[in-house]
Design goal:
Blueprint lengths: L2 H20 L20 E4 L4 H13 L3 E4 L5 H9 L7 H14 L9 E5 L10 H11 L6 E5 L10 H29 L3 E6 L2 H5 L7 H7 L2 E4 L3 H5 L5 H10 L4 E7 L3 H17 L4 E7 L5 H19 L6
Parallel strand pairs: 1-2, 1-3, 3-4, 5-6, 5-7, 7-8
Length: 321
């Protein structure tokens, strides 16, 4: 990070603090409302992150008798709310998750034993702090302290039976297959002739409102986006080097790495691995796209389009797969 970048961040922080002193914010209605027929141990609240995957997970858990409340999908307003109830140097995905819960929770009653089921966004980073950050945000809204469990998690992990675990794995695989079928079908309709891999943490990669519908953007540009399975992304110590190497082995020479401001995996480990990958695969092109509440969407689009133009130019020069 350059000195100029540090100065810009410090100016932004000072401006945010000055603005916060003068702004007023109305906390959402937190008055309790009943949850119908829920037992003390079977009620889960699922944040609106990776909505398609978590919808399938909710369906599977309901089959085992759990009561699941799915919150609406996160959006820009959730990120704004999250910034008011958490530090602005945290991962964009984590900030958005906090904002999503606070903005939409609005009265789930603690007496029924509801627990917040938080998907573990990535590995080898501060994702472990989700529980702490989320609880701190809930306390600031004067909400009763709801229990928080991770999925798959490395803190207060959700304890499930072998059958339930297999059901969750099946749900994630179904969501992957459905998304891949839609993407491939749309790519065929549009005549996409170039493959580009897209990687990133679980929440950012599979939440369209967080990544500004990056899959749709690639398809509109005549490119078929490829992505790792959710189980690979959620795996502990996710082997980024192996993931990228796997795509390379399938003939993919262009990778778009979605990274969030404040994400140690993306900004430190990811870029370090990028250098190793370039050394191992000289013709591999990796484009890093930053996501943050203050990042210009136009800049993101322009950088992605530049990467795609390079990918398309190289298609004709590659040897047959």
């Amino acid at each position: 990070m350059t000195l100029a970048t540090i100065r810009i961040r410090l100016r932004s922080l000072r401006a945010a603090l000055d603005k916060r002193r003068t702004d007023t914010f109305t906390v959402p209605d937190l008055s309790p409302r009943p949850t119908l027929g829920v037992s003390d141990t079977e009620h889960f609240i699922v944040p609106g992150m990776a909505p398609e995957h978590m919808t399938y997970v909710a369906e599977e858990l309901r089959a085992f008798g759990y009561h699941i409340d799915l919150l609406p999908q996160t959006d820009a307003s959730c990120a704004d709310t999250g910034l008011r109830f958490s530090d602005n140097d945290l991962c964009y995905s984590t900030v958005s998750l906090v904002g999503n819960v606070i903005r939409h929770l609005g009265g789930i009653v603690e007496a029924n034993g509801a627990r917040i089921l938080v998907p573990q966004p990535c590995t080898e980073c501060r994702g472990v702090e989700n529980e702490i950050v989320l609880r701190d945000g809930l306390d600031k809204t004067k909400l009763a302290k709801l229990s928080i469990v991770g999925f798959p998690g490395i803190y207060r992990q959700l304890h499930v039976s072998a059958d339930e675990r297999r059901a969750i794995e099946r749900a994630l695989a179904r969501a992957d297959d459905d998304l891949r079928t839609r993407v491939d079908g749309r790519a065929a309709e549009l005549g996409a002739t170039t493959d580009v891999a897209v990687i990133g943490n679980f929440n950012l990669l599979f939440t369209p409102e967080l990544n500004n519908h990056v899959f749709d953007l690639l398809l509109e540009e005549g490119v078929r986006p490829l992505f790792p399975s959710s189980s690979e992304v959620l795996a502990m110590n996710a082997p980024l080097l192996e993931l990228a190497g796997g795509f390379y082995g399938r003939g993919v020479r262009d990778i778009i790495f979605l990274q969030t401001f404040g994400c140690l995996t993306s900004n430190v480990y990811g870029r370090g691995v990028g250098k190793l990958l370039k050394k191992k695969y000289p013709d591999l092109n990796i484009t890093y796209i930053d996501y943050d509440s203050g990042v210009s969407e136009t800049n993101q689009i322009n950088r992605i389009k530049l990467a795609l133009s390079i990918a398309k130019e190289r298609v004709g020069t590659r040897p047959p797969r």
